[in-house]
Amino acid sequence: MDSLYLLIPIALVFVAIAIRVFFWAINSGQYDNLDTEAHRILFDDDETASASEPQQSDPHPNGSHKTGRTKRAAGEPHDD
C-alpha cells in the first residue's frame, strides 16, 4: 500500500507530461497536413529522376560476363 503513495503521483506526472507534449504538437502544427505523407508513398518520383540522369546501357546485353557464356532460357538443356 505504501508503494501506491509513490507510484500514483509518478503516474500523474507522466500523464501531465504526455498531455503537455500532445498539445505542444497540436499547437506547433504537427497534425496540420496528414494527407501528404500518406500519399507520397503512392506516387513514384522515378520519372523525374530518370529524365535528368542518363541511362547506362548494359555492357553485356546477353548476360555474358567474364565467362563468355550467355543466359539460357528456362527449360533449355545444359551443354556441360
Topology overview:
Layout: H1 2-27, H2 35-40, H3 46-52
Order of helices and strands: HHH
Radius of gyration: 30 Å
Query: What structural class do the secondary elements suggest?
Result: mainly alpha
Helix content: 40-55%
Shape, principal axes of CA atoms:
elongated
pLDDT < 50 runs, ≥5 residues: none
Number of helices: 3
Mean pLDDT: 77
**Per DSSP, what share of the residues sits in E-state strands of 2 or more residues?**
under 5%
Span from first to last CA? 81 Å
| Largest sheet composition | none
Q: Please give the number of β-strands.
A: 0
List its salient traits.
Cyt_oxidase_maturation_cbb3; 49% helix; 80 residues; membrane; 3 helices; transmembrane helix; mainly alpha; Cbb3-type cytochrome oxidase assembly protein CcoS
Give your account of this protein's structure:
The chain is mostly helical and 80 residues long. Helices cover 49% and strands 0% of the residues. It has 3 helices and no strands. The chain is elongated, with a radius of gyration of 30 Å. The protein starts with a helix and ends in a 28-residue tail after the last helix. 0% of the residues are buried. The model has no long low-confidence stretch (mean pLDDT 77). This is Cbb3-type cytochrome oxidase assembly protein CcoS. InterPro entries: Cyt_oxidase_maturation_cbb3 (IPR004714).
What's this, in brief?
The chain is mostly helical and about 80 residues long. It has helices spanning about 1-25, 35-40, 45-50.
